[in-house]
Amino acid sequence: MACRFGHVAAIIVAMLAAPAAYAQSAPEPVGVWQTQAGDARVKVSKCGGGICGVVVSLRDPIDPMTGKPQVDNKNPNPSLANRPIIGMPLFSGMRPSAEGKWSGQIYNADDGGTYASSITVTGDSTLRVEGCVGALCGGETWTRVGR
Asked: What angle do CA 52, 64, 54 make, to 5 degrees?
C-alpha cells in the first residue's frame, strides 16, 4: 500500500509540474518581425493578456508624393487617415487560441481594412500571419529580426 501511495504521489507531482514546463516551452511571438515583402518591421509585445503589434519601421518611410512621412491615408475613418504609419497598431484583440497561436484582428494599411486574423509561431525565427475576408483567407510569413 505504501508503495502504491508513493507512485500516485509521484504522478500527481509530475502532473502539477507539467503545465509550468508546457508554458515555458510554448513559442512566443515577442520581438521585431519583418514582413514577407520586407516593406515594414513590426514589434510584437505582450499586452493585456494577449499580444500587440506596432509598426516600428518602413523600407520607404517617406511618401514620394508628399515628401513627408507615410500616413494611413487609406483608412476610411477621416480622423485616422493622417496618422503616421510608423507607430501605428496593427493587431487588436489578439488572444492565445492554441500553443504558439493567437487570434484576433489585423489592420491592413494597404487597403484600410480590418480582418479576422491569426498569427502562429512556426519556428524560432518565423511567424505565419493570416487574415480572412469571409471565406477567403491568405497569409504571409514574417521573419524575426530582433527581440
From this structure: 5
With respect to residue 3, please indicate whether it lies within any of the assigned structural domains. Answer: no
Region for residue 100 given its phi and psi (left: phi exceeds 0; alpha: psi -120 to 50; beta: otherwise): left
Is 78 within a domain?
A: yes
Residues (pLDDT < 50) of the chain are: 1-23
CA distance 95 to 101: 8
| 129 part of a folded domain | yes
> For residue 7, what pLDDT is reported?
35
What local confidence, expressed as pLDDT, does residue 23 receive? Answer: 44
136-146/31-34 β-pairing: antiparallel
Total structural domains within the chain: 1
SS3 content of the chain, % helix, strand, coil (to 5): 15, 50, 35
Helices marked H in the chain: 2-25
CATH for 40: 2.40.128.520
Does a structural domain hold residue 132? yes
Question: What pLDDT digit, counting tens, does each position of 60-101 carry?
Answer: 999 999 999 999 999 999 999 999 999 999 999 999 999 999
pTM of the model: 0.80
